[in-house]
Design a protein that fits this description.
Layout lengths: L6 E3 L16 E4 L11 E4 L6 E4 L43 E4 L5 E4 L4 E4 L2 E5 L4 E5 L7 E6 L2 E4 L4 H6 L8 H9 L13 H14 L5 E7 L4 E4 L21 E7 L17 E4 L4 E4 L26 H16 L5
Parallel strand pairs: 1-2, 12-14
Antiparallel strand pairs: 2-3, 3-4, 5-6, 7-8, 8-9, 9-10, 10-11, 12-13, 14-15, 15-16
């Protein structure tokens, strides 16, 4: 047996009279034709005024504006609401406010937090546009100042450098003038950074430890040595010098060049020194002249024959005096 279910509807401009619906009888009413002026609705008779089953006041519609009048809508764990930020409009608050939670899921608008901490880093706003950033393990942290609307790092001054202040970055101008004393280009060493320059000077100083022995002159363009008389273990070329056998030996450069000994990479200018410290050869940029007898001052003593005021002239006088008897002259 077939059962027919009929759904009443409004006819033209005549609304469905919901009180006339039988219990359980359905009726469709087009928007604007119900006594209460509702939208498209499906109602069911209840022997009285009828009850609305489907309406924009009961269900969430895909289009159109709707307002939730009251009640709490709860989403189960894992349920999400996906919406573009540009389409999210949360009423209330004032410019610059942030959303704050009370920890129980309740959000409210409020002023930006004065302090925010995460992963050991704390940022504090003192209310005057100055942010203090405290890093884990650094007691004083770093101060960042607002300068004409821009963030700028708080730079150290001379007093900060002397006191070892932690919460300021070193000003390179202060570092140059008050710590280094001058720019790195002012270094006269081959190395132009501080630690290598110090090491270079230390090597040169160590090479001068002890009594220095003049071992001859060096042509640094070829490496050829003109050995000083009577000095042992001096080969014809600097490349053959054994530092262990020539400790404290010094060769004065007469011609500039880079042939300054095995392992020695520092070229020498004329009048520089190449010295042995017992383990290696070192170029010393002293620019000192080779010792010339004529440039060595001599002060004649009492009752001496040579009366010249330099060693070379005095030697020449003695040579002439000694050659007198040899050549048949008078001494």
């Amino acid at each position: 047996m077939t059962t027919l279910i009929q759904i009443k509807r409004n006819l033209g401009n005549t609304p469905v009279a919901t009180p006339t619906l039988l219990d359980g009888e359905l009726a469709f009413a087009k928007a604007g034709f119900l006594p209460n002026g509702g939208a498209n609705e499906l109602v069911i008779g209840d022997g009285a005024s009828g009850a609305v089953l489907i309406s924009n006041t009961r269900q969430l519609e895909l289009t159109g504006s709707q307002t939730i009048a009251s009640g709490t809508k709860t989403f189960a764990a894992g349920a999400k609401i996906a919406i573009a930020v540009a389409d999210l409009n949360v009423a209330g608050g004032t410019a610059g406010n942030t959303l704050i939670t009370d920890g129980a899921g309740n959000l409210s608008w409020g002023a930006a937090a004065a302090s925010v901490s995460a992963d050991g880093t704390t940022i504090v706003d003192d209310g005057n546009g100055v942010l203090s950033v405290s890093l884990a393990g650094i007691a004083d942290g770093i101060t960042i100042k607002d300068v004409s609307g821009k963030l700028a790092v708080n730079k150290a001054v001379t007093a900060d450098v002397e006191a070892g202040t932690v919460n300021a970055f070193v000003d390179t101008a202060v570092l140059k003038t008050d710590v280094l004393g001058a720019g790195l280009t002012a270094l006269t060493t081959t190395a132009k950074t501080v630690v290598p320059a110090i090491n270079e000077l230390r090597t040169e100083i160590a090479a001068l430890t002890g009594v220095m022995i003049f071992a001859g002159t060096l042509d640094a363009s070829t490496g050829d040595i003109t050995a000083a008389s009577g000095v042992p273990n001096v080969p014809a070329n600097i490349s053959a010098v054994d530092p262990a056998l020539t400790k404290n030996y010094v060769w004065i450069v007469t011609v500039a060049g880079s042939n300054v000994g095995t392992g020695n990479t520092k070229p020498a200018a004329k009048q520089d020194w190449v010295a042995s410290d017992g383990t290696k050869l070192v170029t010393l940029n002293y620019g000192l002249q080779a010792v010339v007898a004529a440039n060595v001052e001599y002060t004649p003593g009492t009752n001496v024959y040579a009366v010249s005021n330099n060693v070379q002239a005095a030697i020449d006088e003695l040579d002439v005096a000694l050659r007198g008897p040899i050549d048949g002259g008078v001494f």
